[in-house]
Amino acid sequence: MSSEVSAEGKVFVIAGKNINDINFINAWNGCREEAEKYGDTCMHIGEPDHPHFRIQDSVISRVLEKPIQGIAVSVTNSEYLAQNSLREAYDKNIPVVTFDSDLDLEHQYLRKGYIGPDNLEFGRALAREAQRYQPEGGNICLMSGAVFDPNLNKRILGVRRELSGNENLDRDQKLDGQNGWKEPVRCPWYNWDNYETSLQQMWEAIYRAEIDVFVSVGAWPVTNPELYMDVISPARQLFLESKEKTIIVGIGTPTEDQMSLLQKQYLHAYVIIDFTEMGRLVYHRLKSLSEGGDIPEWTRTSNRVLRWDDY
After folding, report:
1. Rounded to 10 degrees, what is the CA torsion of 293, 98, 15, 86?
2. Is the CATH code 3.40.190.10 the one for domain 11-112+275-301?
3. Are 193 and 220 in contact (CB under 8 A)?
4. What fold characterizes domain 119-273?
5. How far is Cα 306 from Cα 181, in angstroms, rounded to an integer?
6. What is the CA radius of gyration of the chain?
7. Per-residue model confidence as pLDDT tens digits over 16-52
8. Fewer CB near the last or first residue (10 Å), C or N of the chain?
9. Single pTM value for the model
10. What is the Cα–Cα distance from 93 to 241, expressed in whole angstroms?
């Protein structure tokens, strides 16, 4: 865990999927900065390993032994956490909110509210960018982190429903020609939150003739912009400049180097989530709960789109 519990003020906790993901660092910074204004503390807990629900569960269980007034969790695996650490928090009457990634519907009684984006809508926004660049449809390859991540699965579902035009499309039903869109057999790719793996998978997808659009529902491929450029440079001249192939990436607030990828036309669009603002809202919701107040079932955060056409 990254910090000790303070003896002064109230203590709240941010539990992302791991501790060194820049998105969760940004969320913690937003929470920490806001807490300091009111004499409180916001801790950031986790391990530096690739995200895993058992590790997250263990970290949450340990912090529940400390005198904390509330915890915010980005859910890795709803069922597992609900059966273990979040059930423990519930039994101890420690207020829980989720952020970024919510619990599945049947487990939501364990938390007081969700702070974050509409992940279905986030997926739809990614899909609308695909439609913008490839209006006739085509073969699309999706990338995600892990098969059990609730928020990422909702983003994939949002992409598929938007492109298919079918609001009743089942969670695991791939695109198979609806409105001209189809997912090849080997897609989606799951990189298990490893950016090097994501680049290897992306290389295979982009340089295969049948892929027209590559959509990553998270920022794994652009984690290291320099390596990304090494992988994509040949494709940039062969496919991207002509818009024969399209790359769209979901991301938190882009770094300067990640923005340069857009400006230099190494990808076509980012759909962006503001994790710092999410962290500020997390603090205020936990603070309200600690004072006996009520909070909304869902505190929505907005998305925005940046395209290479903007530069």
Report:
1. 90
2. no
3. yes
4. Rossmann fold (3.40.50)
5. 23
6. 20
7. 999 999 999 999 999 999 999 999 999 999 988 778 9
8. C
9. 0.90
10. 56
